[in-house]
Amino acid sequence: MSTLAAARADNFYYPPEWTPDQGSLNKFHGQHALRERAKKIDQGILVIRFEMPFNIWCGGCNSMIGKGVRFNAEKKQVGNYYSTKIWSFTMKSACCQNEIVIHTDPKNCEYVIISGAQKKTEDYDVEDAETFELPAAEERGKLADPFYRLEHQEEDLQKKKQAEPVLVRLQRVSDSRHSDDYSLNKALRSRLRSQKKRVVEEEAASAKMGLAIRLLPRSEEDNSEAKRVKFPSKFERSRKDKRALIKAASIFPDSSGSSRMELELKRRKIKASITTRLLSGSVKPSAWSQSCSTSAISKGSTMTARKR
């Protein structure tokens, strides 16, 4: 080993106090070779990874546990069937920590649920599944009788004749599909090329619209859905009101408003000229105040005239 850590990880590290008389490293450390998996080895229990052989219903919370789900199960021997051992697997479900016990059945070559769960029964019709029904155990035992086997053989021949047209048709379909591999490959590649070209065009169209996603082509269903969409009545009402205001307004500018603006500009020019003359010293403050008072009086008179 290159490093001490690697040697310890592989259990090849022998400490200085170890001597060959003390036996193996596991005996020296006082532990089993399987470590935590063998913590109950004195009771005949070994922890293994058990895979569920079929779908079951949990007895604690009634949830389904699928086939192939793995558990840390305690494996121990509970009996014998002739010379074959019967094993028991005890595990806890992940959903509610319910204890499930499953035994092997060497007689019927299957697993049996003892407690904590219930096997999910999955029945199907032979015709719907398009399969053949296997003979029962009793019927398989009767096949040892020559007369029964002869009758059974005649029934099988009749079933074969009835199913022959279907089998021939299926064989013809299979032959037509796989007869010319070159043409099939060519058709598949051309379809893929057209699909890639369509994807590039859709991405380019989305990029022109400023979208980061690819838009699918339009369909009749999308058009019908878009036609069924109706905007709220408030939007339609506000739109109609705005159009009515625009149509009712005059196309010429308001004369009164323009005249007011002109008068305001004239007043500002007069005030600016008086201020410049005052700063230059050509006009006395008394005269400036008098002019301001006269302008205020004229402004008030114009306002009263307007009110009248």
Kindly list the characteristics that best describe this protein.
Coiled-coil domain-containing protein 130; five-stranded antiparallel sheet; single chain
Tell me briefly what this model is.
The protein has ten helices and eight strands.
Secondary-structure map:
Layout: H1 4-9, H2 25-29, E1 46-51, E2 56-58, E3 64-65, E4 70-81, E5 84-92, E6 99-105, E7 110-115, E8 117-119, H3 126-129, H4 137-142, H5 146-178, H6 181-208, H7 220-228, H8 233-248, H9 255-280, H10 285-307
Structural commentary:
Residues 286-308 are annotated as: Disordered. Belongs to the CWC16 family. One of its GO terms (cellular component) is post-mRNA release spliceosomal complex. This is Coiled-coil domain-containing protein 130. Residues 287-308 have a biased composition (Polar residues). The protein has helices spanning 4-9, 25-29, 126-129, 137-142, 146-178, 181-208, 220-228, 233-248, 255-280, 285-307; strands at residues 46-51, 56-58, 64-65, 70-81, 84-92, 99-105, 110-115, 117-119. It has a domain at 44-119. Mean pLDDT is 78; it is low at 299-308. It has a 5-stranded antiparallel beta sheet with strand order 1-4-5-6-7, with no helix packed on it. Strands 3-2-8 form a 3-stranded antiparallel beta sheet, with no helix packed on it. A hairpin with a 5-residue loop joins strand 2 (56-58) and strand 3 (64-65). With 308 residues, it is α+β, with helices and mostly antiparallel strands. It is built from 10 helices and 8 strands. The longest helix has 33 residues, at 146-178.
